[in-house]
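A further point concerns the way the authors explain their paired sequence and structure data. Nothing conveys this as quickly as seeing an actual entry. An entry of this sort, consisting of the sequence and the corresponding backbone structure tokens, reads as follows:
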Amino acid sequence: MSATITAPDGVNLVIVRVDTGEPGLIGWGCATFTQRAFAVAEIVNTYLDPLLRGRDISDISDIWQTTTLDAYWRGGPDLGSALAGVDEGLWDLAGKRLGVPTWHLLGGRVRTAVETYTHASGRDFQELADQVSACRDAGYRHVRCQMTVPGQSTYGAAQADRAHSTWDPEAYMRLVPNMFAQLRERFGDELEIIHDVHERVDPHQAVRLLRAVEEYRPFFMEDPVAPEDVDWLPRLRAHVSTPIALGELLSDMQTFVRIVTERQVDFVRCHISAIGGLTPARKLATLAELMGVRTAWHGPRDVSPIGHAVALALDLSSGAFGIHEHFEFSPQTMEIFPGTPTTSDGMIAANTAPGLGVEFDEDVARKHPPVSASTNWHYSRVRRRDGSSQRP
């Protein structure tokens, strides 16, 4: 097996190739952890490849368990992402060997298509509203809405002035309820509004913020607290009814078990690569279904089309499905990844190709080499007015 890094849209995507020795039979998995792409590729190429040579590709569960434990110190998104690339490649192969889509192996479909949401943002409300209108015209009923806080380093929307790299959470908290009010006035109650807080407020501020937007009926508010503050979730739940989505920064499955079994969240939002791939994600989806929690797997542009296909396999086969985060990939990305999922009227239909349904063209990928680690995303560069580091 081997890992390749490609960046057709300026974002490093890590793809793992799993070889069987059988002509033409190759499995592909997404190992993308953009901020540590080179480290993840090194784990795959230097450690996992020699460890797994000669193993039976049918032993997906055992391979996941033994590789998880092999380093003795387990966990973390670096190892999790490397394991995910291998794990997803094996699930891809399992479907291809039988000539069926991977979702077929997960119990078959419980739906024929999945509802998606996409992103809209703006430097002011008019720009945001124009993007939301375009999303609705394309058939989306669910839209994640982000708006620039004037003069701030704003997540999910263009900065008004890139010379500024500061963050004032109180200014943000004044803006968001006003944004919701204008969206409801402009688009009515049929638009399902999603907003990503991105852990940029303190826990006590999160309580105030979720209360302030409650009347505007968000579909969910994402990451209102940071991973290290998940113990605040019961207090948050006690004071607000706004649906909570959380988990893209968590790679510890035991934390997911706790917040799901205690129903502290409405949607689990994990980055499937970070937790180790399809094998643990399907177990989490089953647990979520039993507890009445829904899934909304992390799916922006730093999840490859193969990673999106993994999420779709789970979406199609799981009763816990809530919503699928969709990113419209560029033509150059779609050339590298034949079979990239696309929407029609805001929905993605079930794929019928064997395996995950997305391939990887290594020759085309080489035309889009990885971007330097020094120019990659660095969230920690955002600071508050007093110079202290702001959680991203």
